[in-house]
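Sequence, structure tokens reproduced for reference:
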Amino acid sequence: MNDVNESSVMTRLEEHLRLRPTLAERIHRELLMELHRRGIVTIDQIHDQARMQAGQPPELRDDPNQAERDRWDERERALVDEITREHVASHFSEADIDDLVNLTMKREEVHNLEIVANRGNVSFRELANLIQRFCKLPLGETRLAPAEVVGTRVALTRHFISDQLEFIGIAKNHLHIRDFDDITRRMLGSDSGIGRIGGKAGGMILAHRILAAAEQGKQTYLPVAVPESYYLRSDVVEEFLRLNRLDEYQSQKYKPIEDVAREYPLIKGVFRNGEFPLKVVHDLRRILEQVGTHPLIVRSSSLLEDRLGTAFSGKYASVFVANQGTPEQRLRAIIGAIAEVYASIMAPDPILYRREHNLIDYVEEMAVLIQKVVGVQYGDYLLPTVAGVAFSRNEYRWSPRIRREDGLARLVMGLGTRAVDRSGADYPRMVALGAPTLRPESNVNEIRRCAQHTMDVVDLRKNRLQTIQLGELLSNGCDFPMLDKIVSVYRDGDLYPPTGLRVDEDPSRLCITFDKLIRETPFVARLRDILTTLERAYGLPVDIEFATDGEKFYLLQCRSQSQAAEAEPVKVPANIPDRDVLFDAHRFVRTGLIEGIEYVVYIDAAAYDALPTRERRLEVARVVGRVNHALRPKSFILVGPGRWGSNDITLGVPVRYADINRTCILIEVARQKDGFCPEVSFGTHFFQDLVEANIHYLPLYPDEPGNRFNEAFFRQSPNVLSAIVPADAEFERDVRVIHLPAVAAGRKLTIAMDGETDVAVAYLK
């Protein structure tokens, strides 16, 4: 390198040292190490040269009991720095100097970040400012090695997202320090506070980062994105409780579950009208100004939620806010939604779930995720074109051709609420991702009956969530985006795909099937690739919630998938006498063997249909819950009409998780007169509860040829409800409890289920 270049390099280096005197020692050390790494000169050679100039000949000792070399004194240290600068000027460029100084600065900032983030009492603002300061540094040509930053990533993840070691173990490999800059800029709460964004928000961010890195530089069908999101920190709920003197409600979790259920409506009313810290109100005003009148969803993101091993599926509230009206009306609506999410901490289902998972003594901190609703506006409605849930492992296979490892999806048109809830007489499209055209339904009439007929949308004119028919959506024309990929046309007794991009058919002839989306687009392959990528990163099966507007694939949630234990093969006994058989089944059977069942809790379809009021049906569900808690766990089965846990109480008993969590098997009886078609309900929050609680599910079709169902036994056996729950004796006509050993000469019930042959039988043994 010529003298001119050496001079310019030296000038650039001296300028850096002058501007950063506190980093001078670290800069010199970084330059010395880089000279050594590049093989220009070793550290020992520079050391020896410095000693020679200081008049101290170098001395290398071979005696293992003595130090190999002496430490530098101050004069030698100064000479080492001077010699280092001379070598640097001869061999480095100005760009090299800039890059190495930048690297030194990043190391210093990362070191400070890790120290501060590991302090338990650091304020949000102090740490956020350090992150922003780090992110203002140029990226530079040379990046910090992963080992140098992983400790800081761990500290930031623990501080801002989750303290669960399993989550941190995954996140440290994918979340970068710069990712936390965007997170902190979107967090709401006091500058002096300390709080996290919770499990749901953290899982979404982590999954998006994993997918974005895997797809970087690739042209993909429906690129992955996340909705515009804001994070109300977990410490805000503590401020809310203190401000409104609501701390007394923290004791709800220790009360009997009946008291929790009875007092929960009161708590919701109290919380809904509570006051919020002024800083939070100011932040919410700012967000509403930024998003305008686009609809929002206010979602729970508890610190316990979506953790590896405890999903809390559907346990806490999520509230849609149509976000129309004056600024004050919109502000009032979003504050009320947040308060309702806070109140859901005190609901019976999450409290019971926490008790079962030994989490009841954990101080629950509820963060809140505020997101723009994914969708397109069509007339007065806003909705996604397609939404749903998907699982990397299929736990409910309706055909031997379906493999567990291929995964499964539940697709709906409109908001994804209908993919995760058992809503009305509707059904999502079930897609076995390895055999996507293989349907659970066997013929066209069944496909039409067991299809989605209504959808959830945000009604911008009525300023609320609304359920509408497909015809109502298409009343202004059939040019809804992707409609040709979503619907089929019913004609001459069969279903046909639309012939063009525009659907020119009477909406009454349209059936939501998603056939063209599945057959003629890369959608299924895209979904499988996303699930495979996430499962590989997590090291565990995963499930996701998603929505698309036809342009992007919006990831809404990601967590480890709840899995049923792999059952040993079961051989169903042959030639059981009919008098000993209570029922058998030949559809949607999962492998399992349950023995020693003592009780049957039975809701008769005719008796339930005859109940005169909604209130009476709700009370029947509560009676089932009280029986559930009075009997020994796993000693009984629940048999009832239609859909257990349906949002539509005309279609089934509206039980909650707290009402059924101790049964060993949940059985749904489908009579032809009801026009009811039990769905493969895997993927709903309700089904996730069954999987986590090790509760089997079985649908029965008594009116189909070849099926046995001993209705006389269920209707005529003595009812012991009054002995089990004396206070509910008045409900003996509605809820029947049969003690099997008492009516079957000491015998108990065995249910053998063989998923390979799709056969199950329940018999007295």
Q: What stands out?
A: The domain at 208-373 is CATH 3.30.1490.20 (Dna Ligase; domain 1). The chain has four domains: 3-186, 208-373, 381-526, 578-764. The mean pLDDT is 88. The longest strand covers residues 553-560.
